[in-house]
Amino acid sequence: ISNLFYEELFSDHGILSQDDIDDILTCLVEMGLKQYSTHFVYRYLRDRAADEIMRLCRALPMTSMETCQALINRMLDEIKIQAPSFFHKLPLCIKDEEVQLLFFRKCFEREWISSDFLQRWCELLLRKGAPWDVAEEYSPAWIFRKACVEQGGDSAAWRIWAKIETQENNAGEYARENTARWIYREACLNREVDSHTWLAWAKLEEQEDNIGECEKENTARWIYREACLKREGDSDVWLAWARLEEQENNIGECEKENTARWIYRQACMNHDGKASVWFAWGRLEEQQNNMGEYEKKNTARWIYREACLKRGVDSSVWLAWGQLEERENNPGEYERENTARWIYREACLKRGVDSSVWLAWGQLEERENNIGECEKENTARWIYRQACMNHDEKASVWFAWGRLEEQQNNMGEYDQENTARWILHEGIKRFPNDGSLYSLYSNLELIHHSPERARDILRKYVLYNNRAINNLAILEYYNGNIDSDNEYCTVKLVKKMEAAQEKTLGSILYLYYCSLLLGRKEEAKHYYRQIQQHPDYDSIDNTWIKEYICLCKKAVIGESDTTEIPEIFNKKDHHIY
C-alpha cells in the first residue's frame, strides 16, 4: 500500500470516515493473515505477507478502539497457531504508545509474552507515570510478579524484575516478598534459572557490601559457591567468584578451598572453564610472580601451555602466553617449543587465531630486526603478508604492514605489490570505514610531499565517515581551497563540523585552530572557552594538531615553522592572550 494511499485515506485529514477506515483495515489484515497462513512452500511470499501485516500495524492507531482490539486479537489468534518469526517486530511497527500498551496487554492476557516484551511494556508504563506498586493491578511491579511467579517467566524476566526493583526501592530484605533480594533468591533456589541470574544476585550482594563467608547463606561468597558447585554455574560465575577473592586478597593456594587459586583450578580443570577463566588464572600467577616452569603444575607457564595445547582456548590466551615469553626475554627460535616465536607460529598457522596474535608476531620480528622479505618465512614482512592476504586479518595488521614498509622507505606505487602505497590502498579496499588506514595513508603522502594524493584519500574517507572532515579542513586551507563553490572547501567543512550534534574535545580543538586559520578570532575565543570548561582540560595536549598543521604546510608550500601557527592561548599559562 503506497504512502500516498495512507496519506490521502488514513491520515487525520484523510477523506475516509472512521467506519470506512475500520472496515478497510479489517479486510486488509484478514487478507494478509490468510496469505501468511497459506504460503508454506514459497517463503518469499510468506515473508511478503508478514511485511504487509507489519505495515498495516502502523495504521492501527487510526482505527476505533473496538476495532483496534479486535484486530490485535485476530493477529494474536493467527500468531498463536503459526508462531511467526516476525512476532517480536510487531510492537516496533506500532508507533502509537497507547496501541503498543494495548498490544502488550493482549499478549499478557494470553500468557504469551517474552522478557523483552515485559521490559518494553513496563518501561513504557513507568515513563507514562505508572506507579511501581505490586498491589496495584497492571502496574509494572504487579505485571512482573504475575509473569514470573504465576506464569513461569524465564530467567531474563526475573533478572529484569529484580533490576527495576533495585532501581525503585533498593535491595530490600530476604524476609519481605517482592524485594530485589527476595526475587533473586526465589528465582535461583526455586525456579531453576540460568547462571546469569545467579551472577546478578551475587553482584547485588557485592554492591551491598555483603561479601560475607561461604558458610553464611545469601552472602556473595555463599551465592557464588552454591551456583558453581551445586548448580553447574558457567564460566562467567566461576570467573566472578575468583575475581571477588582476588579483590579480597584471598589468593591462597590451589589446595585450599574457596581461595582464588583453588577456584580457578576447579573451574579450568574440572568444570570446562572457558578461555576467559584460563586467561585470568594465568594472569593471576603472573602477578604473583609465579612464572615457573612448564614441568611444574599451576605456574603461569604450565597454565598457558595446558590451555592452549589441550583445551582449545581462543586467541587471548595464546597472546598472553607469547607475551609472557617475550617479557621473560625468551623470543627463542622456531625449532624450540615454548619460545615466543614457536608459540606465535603455532597459534597463527595451526590454531586459527585472530589478528591480535598475528600482529604480536609481526611486531616481535620487527623488534628483533628480522624485517626480511615477503618470500622468506617467519620474517616480519612474510608474517604481515600471510596475515593480510591469506587469513583475512583486520585493518590493524594492514596498518602495521604499511607502516613497516614506509619506515623501510619502501613507498612504491599503487600497482607495486608489497609497497606501502599498495598495502594501504589494498587495506582501504577491504576496510573502507577504518579511519586508521586513511589517516596513516594521507599522512605518509604529506610526509612525502604529495598533498594532492593526501586530499584524495581524505575526501574518499569523508564519504564513509565524517571524522576525516577535521584533517581535511586544514589540508584544504593550505591547498588554497578556503572559500569556494567546492563542497570540500575549508569554510563548508567547518560548517559541517559546527553542525555536529556531539562535539568531542578533539573536534573542538580542530574548530579552534580552523577558526584561527580563517582569521575568525571571536569564534576561536568561543571555542577556547569551551576547551577551558571541558573536564579533560588539564590533560590537553595540543601538540599533535599543531604538528599536523605543520605537516600540511610543509607538504604544500615547503615551510614548517611552528612559530607561525596562529595562537590565542598558551596551554602552560592557561589563559587567553
Automatic annotation (TrEMBL):
<dbReference type="InterPro" id="IPR011990">
    <property type="entry name" value="TPR-like_helical_dom_sf"/>
</dbReference>
<dbReference type="InterPro" id="IPR003107">
    <property type="entry name" value="HAT"/>
</dbReference>
<dbReference type="GO" id="GO:0006397">
    <property type="term" value="P:mRNA processing"/>
</dbReference>
<dbReference type="GO" id="GO:0003729">
    <property type="term" value="F:mRNA binding"/>
</dbReference>
<dbReference type="InterPro" id="IPR044624">
    <property type="entry name" value="Mbb1-like"/>
</dbReference>
<protein>
    <recommendedName>
        <fullName>Tetratricopeptide repeat protein</fullName>
    </recommendedName>
</protein>
